[in-house]
Amino acid sequence: MDNIAGQKSGLSLVTNLSVIALVLIWLIPTIGLAVSSFRERAQISESGWWRAPFSVEQAYRVSPDADGAVQDGDTWVLEGNVFDSSEDASGEGSVSGFGITSRAPGAAEPGMIYARYEVQVIEDDGEQDDTNIEIAYEEGSEPVFPETDEDGQEIVQDIPPIFDRSLQVMRNGDFVYRDADEITRGPSIYITAAQPPEFTMDNYETILTSDNMDRAFINTLTVSIPATVIPIVVAAFAAYALAWMDFAARGFFIAMVVGLLVVPLQIALVPLLTFHQTVGIGQSFLGVWLAHTAFGMPLAIYLLRNYMIGLPRDIIESAKVDGATDFQVFTKIVLPLSFPALASFAIFQFLWTWNDLLVAKVFLPSNSESWVMTVKIADDLLGSRGGDWGILAAAAFVSIAVPLAVFFAMQKYLVRGLLAGSVK
Amino acid sequence: MSPILQGIITIILGVGGCAGYFYASNLVLDRFIFPARDDDHGRNINRATMVRPWLFLAPAIFFLGLYLVYPVIGSFIRSLYNRSGDTFIGLSNYLQMFSEEGFRVALFNNILWVIFVPAASTFMGLLVAQLTDRLKWGNVAKSLIFMPMAISFVGASLIWKFVYANNPDIGIINAVRDIFGMDPIDVLQLQFWNNFFIMFIMVWMQTGFAMVILSAALRGIPEETIEAAIIDGANPFQIFFKIKVPQIMPTIVVVWTTITILVLKVFDIVYAMTGGNFDTEILPSYMMDFMFRDDGRATAVAFVIMVIVTPVMVWNIVQARREMR
Asked: Theoretical Cys-Cys bridge with B53: which of A20, A247, B19, B32, CB 3.0 to 4.6 Å?
């Protein structure tokens, strides 16, 4: 069918391009999350994840030792190399900017002199007061003082500015620091340097070791496995009865199952929680398992019945003629043949219970020992770690890794189940 | 007891218990109640055949009845009582709810959701299904677009929190705005439009579902109808809109209603994205505001959702009955 009339090559190019665009739009958010989860906290806040493969400009504070300071005329001088004085700053040994305040860590370019002077300004109320200004200038030239300071206050030009301190940092990290007073404590030098891209597992380590996410992972697993297995057993028998046994109320029950498929969970929460508390189950894992089993039941019966009714009538009837009871027909013939449908439902139910937030929130105890991962993320991490994107990304990835693996491994059954459940 | 151990025991007890129940009850029925060996063994077999379906159905009926049918009535009754549940107050919960601004906002937003999400998901799903239909790498593309289906609503919300982040170094939307020299905006705080940003997460997740089903439906269209249209000189767009879409209309309706029902149940996305702030509340999340605090109000909201779902439920049952005949 590749070359039938009406298939134009131009159209095919447009088709390819639009599918590529759509796939990209669909994938980019998840890729962003994956990349972010492997990045360092400092790098995440400095550049977008899409620039993760490139160097990042990062600011460092360096405090060299005051020991080597010598007096030179009116000033004291300290010389050294910023990279020798700092453990954090490596930056491929190349300074891209420097400064003496944390406000402007990269105010001056390497090689220039960055100095602080005390000047007199006229304040808004007309009073004269002293203030500090920082000026960058080329080595060998004189600093040029502006008309106003950064707040827009006029600088009094006829009073000579008083030198406070100056700093010169070379690209290779060598620095010269001058101070009008004796240097007793190490000065604060700020540099910016390009940091090579760095990928770590730190976020995962943090989230899994110190943040109780490992506990939440196990809780999620504990909720979802029994909640997947038990409904299958219960539903399979019911589906067989509705598919292959003749009794008066069959039509009514099938209609009921179809109707219950769409009942919103919300309606069940309050009465069932009250019921659980009355019979002593309370908020517990047992309660969640029972609730998930029941909420998955309509879909399970519906899917399995639709599949079982399509099994060849001959096999089942000849088995019955040979004297097999319904129980034997079910366990020996129908159940093994229904494996694809069982697998489909198992995947649905597993994804649903693993990903569920509502049922876990209502039917599990609300202490942090019983949190499943969705509750942990939604109720705890989004609040307490709101701005810590690396941690959030790692947590989200831990919680979606298992469903994604199941999805890609069992996609065939998932699709089959969807089709059986919806297309008639 | 550690939850894992508890879980393992539950699986063994649950599965073993169910299997044991079915096996034992069948055995009792065949051997002791209606044994097929005495004089009237023919009648006994018939009687056993009449009873057996109920044995097979009993556990399922128990779960469905207790956990899905009873709550519909139980919720309605509870909604007629006050907060502590000891005083009958008639429809006061409903009257107070309808008079509240918060409920009206939630209802209005929910109407937006019910219109936009199923429409957009079905449209995107149909688009992808059609575009990938004849593509060599179509299955890979479909698999990738289908993928969000496996992700939890909470996980998806987190993924999109990154996209929508205010910081242009985190959020890709604000990064693009930054390139054009525009100030960053918090799209989740933009009144009215924030709803659409949240709804798009749902569209992102449901497009795959729509695509899978519609793609199968497109494959099921008889080839002759399309060939005939080509011979008659129809262009690709005419073929799509006038030949294909009408033939898969019933499937489109099924997809549409399925997503509509889902939209009325999902509170996770709003809960994780905004917590219902900035006028983004929808009915399911509005209900959770009252859960654990005022059960009367919570059940009243739940019952409103139930009433909204009922027409779809009736329609589904009618369809199912028609097919069975």
From this structure: A247
- Six token digits for residue B41: 């063994």
Assessment of whether the complete model's pTM goes beyond 0.90: no
Q: Which of A407, A403, A291, A301 is nearest to A358 (CA)?
A: A291
DSSP helix/strand/coil, A38: coil
Lowest mean pLDDT among A123-127, A245-249, A345-349, A355-359: A123-127
**Residue A225, Cβ neighbours under 10 Å: how many?**
19
Residue A93 confidence (pLDDT):
64
Residues A172 and A312 in one domain: no
Phi, psi of A202 (to 5 degrees): -55, -45
Nearest to B145 among A23, A29, A264 (CB): A23
Q: Which residue has the tokens 């179809």?
A: A258
Q: Residue A27's domain spans which residues?
A: 9-53
Residue B45 lies in a domain: yes
How many angstroms separate the CA atoms of B5 and A93, rounded?
Answer: 55
Inspect the interface and report whether the beta carbons of A294 and B68 lie closer than 8 Å.
Answer: yes
Q: Mark yes or no for CB contact A400/B155 under 8 Å.
A: yes
**CATH classification of the domain holding B205:** 1.10.3720.10
At A307, which CATH number?
1.10.3720.10
Q: Which among A15, A37, A270, A408 is the top mutation candidate for probing chain B, defined by the most B β-carbons within 10 Å of its own β-carbon?
A: A270
Per-residue model confidence (pLDDT) at position B123: 94
Q: Do A374 and B154 touch (CB under 8 A)?
A: yes
**CA separation for the pair A130, A127 (Å, rounded):** 10
Distance from CA of B87 to the nearest CA of A (A): 16
Q: How confident is the model at residue A174 (pLDDT cuts 50, 70, 90)?
A: confident
Q: State the residue range of the domain holding B23.
A: 3-79
- Classify residue A1: in a domain, yes or no: no
Instruction: Measure in Å the smallest separation between the Cα of B115 and chain A Cα atoms.
Output: 18
Q: How many beta carbons lie within 10 A of that of residue B102, not counting itself?
A: 13
Residue from A263, A325, A354, A366 to probe the interface with B (highest B Cβ count within 10 Å):
A263
- Token reading at B315: 């329609």
What is the structure's pLDDT at B19? 82
> CB of A279 within 8 Å of any CB in chain B?
no
Q: Is A269 on the interface with B (CB under 8 A)?
A: yes
